Amino acid sequence: MTFITLLEAVIIIYLAVYNIRIIRKMDRLKKQLRSSSPDKPNPKATLDTPLPVIQETEPENKNAEPKADGETKVTDSAKDKKLFERINRTIIEEQLFLDPEFSREKFIRLGLINKNKVAQLLQQYANTNLNGYINSLRLEYASKLIQTQPDIPIKAVAIDSGFNSSRTFYRLFQQKYGMTPAEYKESLHGVS
Asked: Taking the complete model, does pTM exceed 0.90, yes or no?
């Protein structure tokens, strides 16, 4: 066996093991999504967990249609809201937003929905698109990092928060908070 053939075999084995890990994790997430109920309290939630970015909607009774026998039938709107809440909770609990490669495909797999539904759910319940939603979660996380770890450099905060580019991080942070990350840090800790 030549060195290149051996190297190719090692790479193939590595990719197979990696794919098995991904499949197992996806199976766990699917089970978690199927078994989770929005009414149950979340034991994993902590004070550090960002609040969901869910837009207020009409009360449940307006989303239900009466049936002939007096029961109510949940409409698609209520189902969509619960679906979004489940996906949102998973993204926050698992801190999936910290993955710089988080994509629409990953969002689709979390909710087992089609690609057209992603934009609709995000616009309706987060009032933004996928990038805006994920970046909002990242900025909240970055803000908490700056508050709780004043010694961490701003570039490290950007990377730890899931941003590929410090420039994008600075621009979005300033848009959201009205000051640069360094100014924000200075206002909290008197450290630059």
From this structure: no
